[in-house]
Write a structure and sequence with these properties.
mainly beta; Jelly Rolls; 7-stranded antiparallel sheet; disordered C terminus; metal ion binding; Pirin; Short-chain dehydrogenase; RmlC-like_jellyroll
Length: about 325
């Protein structure tokens, strides 16, 4: 998992050493294994939030781990043009390349460690697809897409697009240098990530070396979700075993504790984690397909607006793809 790495983590800023006697570490409330499925034109995903109540995810809605898959020539796939309204999508690429284009003029190419942050707000159309040269050659692809809810007062905000290069992430390590922490959004111990958020959240990609431990300060007013991208370890005060494709939902507290197993699989030599948390919005959620609103009536209006062309127009110059243009509804 390349993402962003450094030659020597010991040159990075270090987290403080927490006092176990006075720090309230979070216990694991729920541990789930993500089921596998397919998205868009048929690329494999793990549905990381499946089975978790929205009240425990709030302010998040949905998380797909895309891949990890090594495509043969001609196999790479993306999504067709489709609409969104009422939330933000955060697409983080660990391995491979993805092109994005939207009806608001946003777009670009992201690769190892880059993030595309699209605020759908009042409505937008977009497409995500591998570039043509990757379709021809095949290759490794691995990434994540996280859906972040917007509060009622901001659901109809103007669409916005952020292109965040991996090198912009804040990098830090643990007191013993056993972890690489990449802060993508929000802040960790005063180290700010580059992502600008409507909803107060923190997102970090953490790599723990075999046998290493992480005591991560975490805002007590945020929820805390730890998803295992690869590897094996233990989470929470009780040391619950976790492995690739599992999500640990934590209870209240002011710090997270994770340790990596001494022995890892040959394919995943370290424990890789995607850690998320945010301030709960605590509003009703009406979610169907590509729309996340507060009421059923608002969902109906979103579909009517899409069908009437009020969510945007597909640009004449498009990213090539192999699918149709109808939106997914699940």
């Amino acid at each position: 998992m390349p993402a962003i790495t450094v030659d020597d983590v010991l040159v990075l800023p270090r987290l403080p050493k927490l006092d176990a006697a006075t720090t309230e570490y979070r216990a694991v409330r729920r541990l789930i294994t993500a089921p596998s499925g397919f998205e868009g034109e048929g690329f494999p995903v793990r549905r990381a939030f499946a089975g978790v109540p929205l009240t425990e995810l709030d302010p998040f809605i949905h998380l797909d781990q895309m891949g990890e898959v090594d495509y043969a020539p001609g196999e790479p796939k993306g999504t067709p043009w489709h609409p969104h309204r009422g939330f933000e999508t955060v697409t983080y690429i660990i391995d491979g390349i993805f092109d994005h284009q939207d009806s608001n003029g946003g777009g670009g190419t992201i690769t190892n460690g880059d993030t595309q942050w699209m605020t759908a707000g009042s409505g937008i159309l977009h497409i995500e697809a591998p570039p043509e040269h990757l379709v021809v050659s095949g290759g490794l692809f691995h990434g994540l897409q996280l859906w972040v809810n917007l509060p009622r007062a901001k659901k109809m905000s103007p669409p916005r697009y952020q292109d965040i290069r991996g090198r912009e992430a804040s990098l830090l390590t643990t007191p013993d240098g056993g972890a690489l922490i990449r802060v993508i959004a929000g802040e960790v111990d005063g180290h700010q990530g580059p992502g600008t958020t409507h909803t107060p959240i923190t997102i970090a990609h953490v790599t723990l070396q075999p046998g290493a431990a992480l005591d991560l300060p975490w805002r007590s007013d945020y929820n805390a979700l730890v998803y295992v991208l690869g590897g094996r370890g233990k989470v929470g005060t009780e040391g619950r075993p976790v492995h690739t494709g599992q999500l640990a939902v934590h209870g209240p507290g002011e710090a997270l504790r994770v340790t990596a197993d001494e022995r890892q699989d040959a394919h995943t030599p370290a424990l890789d984690l995607y850690i998320m948390g945010g301030e709960p919005i605590r509003e009703p959620v009406a979610h169907y397909g590509p729309f996340v609103m507060n009421t059923r009536e608002e969902l109906v209006r979103a579909f009517e607006d899409y069908q009437a062309g009020r969510l945007g127009v597909i640009p004449a110059k498009r990213v090539p793809h192999s699918g149709g243009e109808e939106p997914p509804v699940s």
